[in-house]
Amino acid sequence: MKQIYTKTGDDGQTCLRGGVRVEKDDIRIETNGQIDHLNSLLGIVRAAIGKQEELLADIQRELLVMMSHIATPDEQTNPKPLHAEELTARMEQAIDSLMAGRTVPFVIPGDSLVTSFIHAARTQARTVERRLWTLNKQHPVSPAILTMMNRLSDYLFALALNHQEET
Predict the structure, then answer these.
(1) What is the rounded CA–CA span in Å between residue 142 and residue 135?
(2) What CA–CA distance (Å, rounded) separates 139 from 134?
(3) Euclidean distance between CA atoms 48 and 167, whole angstroms
(4) Model-level pTM?
(5) What is the pLDDT of residue 15?
(6) Residue 164 and residue 81: Cα distance in Å, rounded?
(7) Which helix (H) or strand (E) holds 85?
(8) Alpha carbon of 99 to those of 49, 95, 117, 156, 160: distances in Å?
(9) SS3 of 20-74
(10) Dihedral angle at the C-alpha atoms of 108, 163, 65, 143, nearest 10 degrees?
(11) pLDDT along the chain (167 residues), means of 10
(12) Per-residue DSSP letters for 93-131?
């Protein structure tokens, strides 16, 4: 790609995979915009934590694959494999480890920048989950994607608790 702008979206439309034109407020585009926002927040979280967070990086890569699936018209098949089930299992193991021996407290974000960023990503994960369920009413979404997004917000909550204790 030589230019980042195409001018093809100036009329309020954009493309799904394969060139199918849709309105920019199509639920698939809105959902992908929310996932993109979440992915950016997860990048801030990884940078703020300051150590290699392989699970978060893998989640970010999977979010890009999810976006590709969401942008695939219903009558087409997306060739990119989903790893959502595997990542959900990994998040469940991490949650169990992070929450071992703890009770689930009510939290008010703001104790540190790191935990505040994690909570911002957690709440965005919930927004994405709601958009996915809205999308699912019109365009079927893989149950693995829906489950992974539900688990992601739980994982981020547990991660925030863990980092809260470190500060």
Answers:
(1) 11
(2) 9
(3) 12
(4) 0.91
(5) 83
(6) 35
(7) helix 84-99
(8) 18, 6, 19, 11, 11
(9) CEEECCCHHHHHHHHHHHHHHHHHHHHHHHCCCCHHHHHHHHHHHHHHHHHCCCC
(10) -60
(11) 72 81 89 98 93 90 97 92 97 95 78 92 98 97 97 96 73
(12) HHHHHHHTT-------S-S-HHHHHHHHHHHHHHHHHHH
Residue 7 DSSP SS3: coil
Tokens 């992601």 — which residue?
152
Structure tokens at 128: 């994405």
Q: In one letter, which amino acid is 122?
A: R
Strand partners, 85: none
Tokens encoding 139? 């365009």
Given the structure tokens 């994607």, which residue do they identify? 145
